[in-house]
Structure formats: C-alpha cells, structure tokens
Amino acid sequence: MSDTIIEVSGLHKAFGKLQVLKGIDMSVRRGEVVCIIGPSGSGKSTLLRCVNLLEEPNSGTVLVNGFEMTDPDVDIDKARRMIGMVFQGFNLFGHLSVLDNLTIAQRKVLKRDAAEATAIARENLRKVGLEEKASSMPSQLSGGQQQRAAIARALSMQPAVMLFDEPTSALDPELVGDVLGVMRQLADEGMTMLVVTHEMQFAREVADKVLFMDGGVVVEEGPPAQVIGDPRHERTQTFLHRVL
Ligand code: ADP
Ligand code: MG
C-alpha cells in the first residue's frame, strides 16, 4: 500500500472570477501530521474542502487513500467515509444527545447495529474525556466539550485521515488546551491529520510538516523548525511576525 495517503496535484479553484487556489501540490503520508498556516483568505479552508470534494476543483487531482476524489466516476459517498472532518464551528446535531450524535452516521451510513455503534461511540467519548456526557444534549456542553464531541463523532466513523479546519478558533482561550490535547493524543496514536491552525505552538510541537499558504499558493513547506522557526520567505516571516 502506498505510503502517501493524500496527494493533491495542480489544484486550481476559482469562485467566479476570484482565483482562490492557483496550483496547489501537496501530500500527506500515512501517520503524518501536516499543519497549514497562513493569513485569512489565503485559501486554506478551500483547499481542505477540495480534499473531500465539498468544493469541486476547476482542475487538478486529489487522491485520498487510493481514491481519486476528482474522478467523475468515483463513488463520492464511499470515498468521503475515509475522511473525518472537524470544522471551526461546532456542528453537532442540537436535537440529539451526545451519544446519538456519535451513533447516527455509524448506523445510517455504515449500517452498524445499535450495540456496535454504541460501543464504538463510548470508546471514542472516553478517548476525548467525555464519557460522562453521553446522555447530555450539546447545548449543555461547553464549546470545548462540543468540539471534543465533534472529534469523537468523526473518529467513530473510523476514517483513514482526519481534516481539521481551525478547530480551536471559536473557543474561549481557556478551552483551547483541552481540544489541542485531544489532537495531540490522536497524533501520538498515529492518526493521519491535515490541520489548518493558527496555533503555532501546536504546529511546532506536533506537525511533521508545515505548509505556509498565501494568495492561493504554497509559499513554503518543510519541518516546523524550519518553516516556523527559521522561515526562508519574506511572506512567511511577515505573517509569523504578526501572529507570534
Ligand atoms: P482561508 O481559510 O485561508 O481564510 P478561504 O479558503 O476560506 O481562506 O477563502 C479564500 C478566498 O475564497 C476568500 O477570498 C474567500 O472570500 C473566497 N471564498 C471562499 N469560499 C467561497 C465561496 N463559496 N464563494 C465565493 N468566494 C469564496
Ligand atoms: Mg478558513
């Protein structure tokens, strides 16, 4: 099996006349944590959304775990099942308990029976430190707990890769650490992760590779010690001066 789990080649995406992605080449290897940093509007979310085809690229290819997402004949629902995604906002279903949030897609999409789905859900709630919250409603949880539940829900589908789009940006500062802690633990367990983040400390400590994006291109990529610690490009330096 290939060591490369995500491979993006020559990816272009425009919204009307606005060119947002201008030829992105990037790859993620199995078990790797890749962080994407860069200013607002540089195309980070659009890139992530093209990886699971929430946005359709204008040209270029996206391969995930051997599936060509951009092939018109691909079974996109099947392909998307390999990909877990966690967004900035908390996307739990408000009318369902935490446990039901974690079991519904397992049952409807993966056709697991209730006992198996519940066992997998409870195991993932334990992993994110929320086993006591199984019967709570999302509104009874803090933002950080909701985000950890959203991570547990994605994990319950047993994806091959997890995508995170600024998962801590909407959280009160004191709740950020718990969510980053869960992500760090996932990384330690060998989960393949592609993470858009402004948390430079997290990127420095956890990422195997950092990509700096600006204006729809990858300006610079490499190990965090280089891209964050000793950036070569002026645009990367300017960005880091502003955020660090
Ligand atoms: P980032 O995540 O780096 O902040 P985005 O990928 O969200 O950047 O956005 C890049 C650019 O694309 C921005 O100018 C944004 O306004 C534009 N954009 C994103 N999504 C859409 C959309 N659905 N329709 C039109 N423009 C969009
Ligand atoms: Mg974004």
UniProtKB/TrEMBL annotation:
Enzyme Commission number(s) of this protein: 7.4.2.1
Signal sequence, start to end: none
Membrane topology field: Peripheral membrane protein
Subcellular location(s) per record: Cell membrane
Domain (ABC transporter): residue spans on this chain: 6-240
InterPro entries with a match to the protein in the record: AAA+_ATPase, ABC_ATPase_HisP-typ, ABC_transporter-like_ATP-bd, ABC_transporter-like_CS, MetN_ABC_transporter-like, P-loop_NTPase
Keyword Membrane belongs to the record: yes
GO molecular function: ATP binding; ATP hydrolysis activity; ATPase-coupled polar amino acid-transporter activity
Top enzyme class: translocase
Keyword Oxidoreductase listed: no
Family, similarity comment: Belongs to the ABC transporter superfamily.
Name this protein carries in UniProt: ABC-type polar-amino-acid transporter
